[in-house]
Design goal:
Layout lengths: L2 E12 L2 E13 L3 E6 L6 H8 L7 E6 L2 E2 L5 H11 E4 L11 H11 L4 H14 L15 H12 L6 E5 L7 H18 L2 E6 L10 E6 L2 E7 L2
Parallel strand pairs: 3-8, 3-9, 6-7, 7-8
Antiparallel strand pairs: 1-2, 1-4, 4-5, 9-10
Helix pairs in contact: 3-4, 3-5, 4-5, 5-6
The structure holds adenosine-5'-triphosphate.
Adenosine-5'-triphosphate (ATP) binds next to strand 2 and helix 1.
């Protein structure tokens, strides 16, 4: 099991009161499976991803990533866990304008202190895996929106994560490109044995998901197997 949330409650200050963003949420995501979490705006999807990413500590409940329960871990230990085990794909890939696709990925590895030659080899392998072998030398403005999103996906895989967290990857794409991105994520999930969580408000792309969980007002309905 690479992600296990048990009885997670998260609240935010709301005037005199507190707003419950996640209400006793339980979720298990085994390796090699893609779980889509769907729900309307404000339902708690981003909060769920932030907790799973260990960026936000819930009020109560436990978060287990890659077999490690995070309760009581220091900030440095959480940073190390994220570096080692978690990849995050953001809604917008936030690529650096002056770097080529390969360099965007290599940058991640140089931050991690890996050798440049190995980093380059891994970057090219991952760009090939997302269908961008021929675009490795292009800069962001020479890529389409869907291609930039795929660079963001490849970048999130540089540290060979066991947990891949994906935030609304299709929001800036048309239907066909959005569906292609979800299909790609499902394939990478199965090939690389990641536990993948994809949050979205849009159900129409999700045929490739293994399971779909619905979040409403901070409550998660048990994931159903996608049909
Ligand atoms: N930092 C914060 N401080 C206070 N309230 C917050 C904070 N972040 C989120 N909320 C509230 O918590 C609830 C859940 O928000 P969250 O962003 O997790 O939902 P969401 O489903 O991701 O929405 P969206 O699709 O609009 O991003 C909402 O009512 C939101 O207003």
């Amino acid at each position: 099991m690479s992600l296990y949330l048990s009885d997670v409650t998260l609240t935010y200050p709301d005037g005199e009161d507190r707003l419950t963003a996640l209400d006793r949420v339980g979720l298990e995501v085994p390796r090699g499976t893609l779980t889509a979490v769907v729900g309307p705006s404000g339902s708690g999807k981003s909060s769920l991803l932030a907790v799973a990413a260990t960026l936000v500590t819930p009020d109560t409940g436990t978060v287990t990533v890659d077999g490690v329960t995070t309760t009581g871990m220091s900030r440095a230990e959480l940073t190390e866990l994220r570096r080692r085990a978690i990849g995050i794909v953001f809604q917008q890939p936030h690529l650096l304008p002056s770097l080529t696709a390969a360099e965007q990925l290599q940058l991640m590895a140089s931050i991690d202190g890996r050798s440049p030659a190995r980093a380059r080899g891994r970057a090219l392998e991952l760009l090939d895996a997302v269908g961008l072998a021929a675009q490795a030398g292009r800069r962001p403005h020479q890529l389409s929106g869907g291609q930039r999103q795929r660079v963001g996906i490849a970048r999130a895989l540089m540290n060979d994560p066991t947990l891949l967290l994906v935030d609304e990857p299709t929001s800036a794409l048309d239907h066909e490109r959005g569906a292609a991105v979800v299909d790609l994520l499902a394939r990478l999930t199965h090939e690389r044995s990641t536990a993948t969580v994809l949050v979205t408000h849009d159900r129409t792309h999700l045929t490739a998901a293994d399971r779909i969980a619905e979040v409403r007002d901070g409550r998660l309905r048990a994931p159903a197997t996608a049909t």
